[in-house]
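new request in #modeling-help
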Amino acid sequence: MSRHVSVDLSAYLDGALGVRDVERVKAHLDTCASCLQEYKGVQEVQRLLRSLPDPTPREGFTERLHWQLQREAARGPRLRFLNGVLGVFAVRPIRVALAASAVVLVLGLPLAWMTGQFGPRQMPLDTDAYLRHYVVLSADRSLVDEATTTFVSSDFGTPDQPIR
Amino acid sequence: MAEAISVLEGLEGMTSPFGGRDAVGRGDESSSTRRLAAFEELVQRHQGQIYRVAYRLTGNHDDAEDLAQEAIVEAFHAFDRYQPGTYFDRWLYRIMSRTYIDIVRRRNRRPMISLDAPIGGEGDPLVALMGDSRDDPQQRTEATDLEATIQAALDRLPEEFRAAVVLADIEGLSYDEVARALRCPVGTVRSRLHRARQVLRDELGSHVSARRKDR
């Protein structure tokens, strides 16, 4: 006997299987009593669900809905983005907090590394280094006072040219 | 077609952002009135289906009214995105399914039951809970008794599974439409329906076999 088709029975019932699968399931149902019984059961469940009567809303439902919509219309459009963001926090606060922490870690660590907050620190520049920097700039542009200006205005931490 | 035409008339005002400066105040008012009227007309036309889905999802009138109202209000605020001429009820089901799952998670009132867990046994706390909330059995007719049994079986399903069954089996939506409503792949809809129907078949065992004997 071929393999049982229990997994495909719902899709078979709904006509959601491809032609070859339909043939396979049909052939199996002809020979397997247990799968056929299961199929009839699933079919019966669907029939019962479809036979459920329509529920009648409680009295005044239409009026209450009408007034609610009137109020909403008078209130104007919602701030959809804010609502969405706050809504996510309200529904899954822990997941959102974890996701936010992950984003901070993934983006923050490399950024901190690149900006020198962590990792290898540059050696602090001493007075000699600044003097050498001044000499180099003066030699390049002796007629301009740019070298002096650059030296005086620098914050003693970030010379704008590499020191040879 | 009539649905598309009347809605288009209602949408006319709200989709023209370039009204003259003088007409802004009055124009806005009348366009929002037209928009509300078009929306209410569609809701009224589909109110039965909307309430049916809400009731089968929640299992009682209080929650069904809350869910239907919340979903309809959500839909009203998103009405600009509704494409006239497409199925309004399908569009609203999509909104309602999301609203429903959000509400359930927010309130966390319904216990989550795994489909792998034994259901309906003596250790099942839901059996006692649902038994207490029912009316006096003497006053029930056979038909409502069966309805209550089916609804109770539906109530036992986890919300994503219940939503799939309600949309596919009660409303007759295709797998694609259910997948769009529940924002999940078609394969997931297929497996949810399969497992949910298996559980329902076991739950409703006596009714299923009784029907078979009657034939």
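bot summary: Chain A has three domains: 6-50, 61-114, 122-164.
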